[in-house]
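Sequence in, structure out. Go.
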Amino acid sequence: MNPKLAIHGGTAVRSIPLPPLLRGALVIGGEEKEEVDRVIDSKALFRYYGNDVQHCVERLEHQIAQEANVPYALGVTSGTAALIVALKALGIGYGDKVIVPANTFTATAGAVICANAVPVYADIDESMNLDPHDLERVYDNEVKAIIAVPINGTPCDMDGIMAFAREKGIYVIEDVAQSLGTTYKGRFAGSIGHIGTFSFQMQKTITAGEGGAIITHDAGLFERAVRYHDQGSFREKMRYGFETGEQQAFAGQNYRMSELTGAVLLAQWKKLDPIISVMRHRQQAARRAIEARLPQVRFRKSPDPAGDTGSVLGLFLPDAETAVRFAQAVEAEGVTCFRMYGGRPIYMTPFLLHQRTAEKNNFPFDFPFRHPVAYKPGMCPVAEDLLSRYVHIPISPTLTERDAEDIAEAVVKVYEGLGVDQWTKA
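Output:
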């Protein structure tokens, strides 16, 4: 007989819950404090001038560019800011459409709207990422770009996405907010499309609480990004060997990263590889242990498993009701488990579904598109199905081998204890 589930009054697999849904934040220590102290002592908190500037943001940009194997990197204030700056660098705005995956955080679609363009939603596949085969369905000649989002550490099928973009002559932005360190066929996620964006928010792989970055191979896009993030200025042209004059300038906003943020991230960046290494090992260990006892379980797929960061262990249940019960029961065993975004696509968020903005006439949705933009339930049926029955367990860089064993034990115990129907792997 199976052990009694904790949700039914039995003894939980763990008496102490696993760490919270955090990664880089859990390994903050003396290294971050030392970098910040140097900035505080310098009294130069602004990256571009002061009595004793420590050049933390500049050094961070160099590290990012070196790791991603790109010539240009730019620190900004947040992942959302990075997306907006990227869109503006590409010249996207009013009257344009941008393809967004049905499974992503609201910031992806929100940044498109804040850049004065309109998102249109493509379906996903069992990687939980954008399905390149659905791009043709949502494309029309008003679409100017695709945002590919490798969600929770699993890469997108970038070959398919880039091939489609080349055929149509449109841009690709990689929103790598949740997946820093992910690779696809050996290439750093964010470096494959025309421009890539990162987030350093509290839950991200490395963090300064907030912060973001942009990377690109394109000098022209980089200059536009720099100018938009610094109110039209390009203060470090000599650093990059740029000779453009002020005729290239245009009005921008202030998305400059502070030296304090740069200081924290300098120390965090050095921990990126160790964080990913631990997450990968723990996720793979838990998955192997589950597969050995429950070979019928269907795990999230990946177009390049070697490139996954291992930040979550994701699996599919037969239906939405079972997924809800499963997640609740695993939580009761002391292992964090939940459905992504409440089990629904991003376009079902009310303000997106009803196209509400802070602007007059719900600008930019008031543009007279030749192909009107309408959102409704059912428009991405695969996403609605998969998200309703997908659950995942976050993997922390502080997990031990025993913790990975407990994750596997909780999944097996609940799967068997709930009597989840046996079904064959695809």
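Check: The first strand starts at residue 72 and ends at 76. The longest helix spans residues 272-293.
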